[in-house]
């Protein structure tokens, strides 16, 4: 992507993320930009090259490694969280899961798993969701390793980073 396009995409996302977070707060439903935000965040944080939209099987490249990127906004919910559909047999080597805070749409964690391991898990009998290619976030994390995590924000009122108790 050209430098001027990168700058404009950053501006667009800076505008869209608060709107998506507000929409979720008002309706309880996602606005539908989670995937795009996740792809851009993963590309920036992990220095990936995004491929053209609708490329079969993957969203980005790291050298010759083909990477499928899944995004999930999460927050305070008891509901099971699932990734979007992962299709077996796609030209893909790695699956990334970008977890976004649904209150801000800011990235919190990025998890990485080998595509073959994800497909093996999806092929196990006993789950209608897995049969459809849907994997829970917790099941994905069991296969994956965390490759990026947001640093906790430090409280500026305290030198130790802990809020004072007054």
Structure, explained:
This protein has 166 residues and is an alpha+beta fold. The chain has a single domain (3-75, 82-149), classed as PvuII Endonuclease, Chain A (3-Layer(aba) Sandwich). It is built from five helices and six strands, in the order H-H-E-E-E-E-E-H-H-H-E. A six-stranded mixed sheet has the order 1-2-3-4-5-6, sandwiched between helices. It is globular and about 45 Å long.
Question: Can you summarize this structure?
Answer:
The protein is of the alpha+beta class and 166 residues long. Helices cover 35% and strands 22% of the residues. It has a six-stranded mixed sheet with strand order 1-2-3-4-5-6, with helices on both faces.
CATH fold title: PvuII Endonuclease, Chain A
What's the domain count?
1
Query: What is Rg?
Result: 17 Å
The average pLDDT value, as a whole number, equals 86
Summarize the helix and strand pattern as letters: HHEEEEEHHHE
The geometry reads as globular
Q: Which stretches are poorly predicted, pLDDT < 50 over at least 5 residues?
A: 158-166
Instruction: Determine the fraction of residues in helical runs and give it as a percent range.
Output: 25-40%
| CATH class descriptor | Alpha Beta
Q: Describe the largest sheet.
A: 6 strands, mixed
Q: Return the structural class.
A: alpha+beta
Output the strand order for the largest sheet. Answer: 1-2-3-4-5-6
Share of residues in strands: 15-25%
In CATH terms, the superfamily is PVUII Endonuclease, subunit A
What's the end-to-end separation, in Å? 50 Å
Total beta strand runs:
6
Helices, by number, come to: 5
CATH architecture: 3-Layer(aba) Sandwich
């Amino acid at each position: 992507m050209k430098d001027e396009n990168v700058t404009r995409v950053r501006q667009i996302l800076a505008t869209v993320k608060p709107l998506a977070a507000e929409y979720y707060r008002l309706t309880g439903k996602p606005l539908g930009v989670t995937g795009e935000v996740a792809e851009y965040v993963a590309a920036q944080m992990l220095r990936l090259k995004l491929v053209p939209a609708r490329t079969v099987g993957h969203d980005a490249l790291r050298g010759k490694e083909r990477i499928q990127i899944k995004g999930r906004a999460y927050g305070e919910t008891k509901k099971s969280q699932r990734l979007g559909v992962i299709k077996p047999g796609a030209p893909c080597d790695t699956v990334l899961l970008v977890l976004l805070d649904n209150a801000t749409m800011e990235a919190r964690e990025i998890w990485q798993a080998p595509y073959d391991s994800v497909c093996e898990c999806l092929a196990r009998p006993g789950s209608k969701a897995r049969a459809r290619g849907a994997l829970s976030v917790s099941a994905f994390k069991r296969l994956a390793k965390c490759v990026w995590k947001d640093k906790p924000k430090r409280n500026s009122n305290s030198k130790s980073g802990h809020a004072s108790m007054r």
